[in-house]
């Protein structure tokens, strides 16, 4: 047998993808302490805290309007299953936190949906959970959005979609105008 055949089976790791947006991010640079370059391992028994106090928070937001500890994420295994999840808790006494449409006051907590938008103040964070099997740690992968997350995800198209399913804007973006053709020419 080769060493490849004898190697231990590699287990997948749960990864929490977080995409951050703030309308003043270019001028105020409140995300300058976050590592957007690579995935970061977090021990399963650690609580991932977000806020302005760098001595307490693993993920530091450089903004005086952010609470010392804004919110936390706790990794856990769901009861009687092999599934893992995250619990989000609002730790700010002054600012409410919303997860999708659910508003959390101070010390309120809920399970983080597999894909959701977390908001507080002018901050928008898209959270997406990529499932894994590891019980010892999870990973975070931070991203920076250039456009507001809420507008990108939630606004419906204002143009009606024709019966053929091809939007007129498709032709305009191609530099062509729609033309009528006979069915027999296809």
From TrEMBL:
GO biological process: innate immune response; positive regulation of canonical NF-kappaB signal transduction
Cell compartment(s), UniProt: Cytoplasm
Domain FHA: 49-121
Stored Pfam families: FHA
InterPro entries reported in the protein's UniProt record: FHA_dom, SMAD_FHA_dom_sf, TIFA
Iron in keyword set: no
Key words of the record: Cytoplasm, Immunity, Innate immunity
Major localisation: cytoplasm
GO cellular component, one term: cytoplasm
The keyword Cytoplasm appears for this protein: yes
Similarity remark: Belongs to the TIFA family.
Name of the protein in its database record: TRAF-interacting protein with FHA domain-containing protein A
Gene from which this protein is expressed: Tifa
């Amino acid at each position: 047998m080769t060493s490849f055949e004898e190697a231990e089976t590699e287990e997948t790791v749960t990864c929490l993808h977080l995409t951050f947006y703030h309308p003043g991010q270019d001028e105020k640079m409140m995300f300058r302490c976050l590592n957007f370059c690579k995935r970061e391992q977090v021990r399963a028994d650690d609580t991932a805290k977000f806020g302005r106090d760098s001595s307490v928070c693993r993920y530091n937001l450089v903004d005086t309007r952010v609470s010392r500890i804004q919110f936390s994420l706790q990794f856990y295994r769901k009861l009687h299953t092999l599934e893992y999840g995250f619990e989000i808790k609002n730790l700010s006494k002054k600012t409410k936190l919303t997860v999708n449409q659910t508003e959390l006051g101070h010390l309120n907590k809920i399970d983080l949906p597999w894909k959701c938008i977390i908001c507080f103040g002018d901050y928008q964070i898209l959270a997406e959970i990529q499932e894994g099997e590891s019980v010892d740690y999870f990973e975070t992968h931070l991203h920076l959005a250039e456009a507001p997350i809420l507008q990108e995800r939630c606004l419906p198209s204002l143009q009606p979609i024709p019966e053929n399913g091809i939007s007129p804007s498709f032709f305009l973006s191609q530099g062509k105008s729609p033309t009528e053709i006979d069915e027999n020419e296809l």
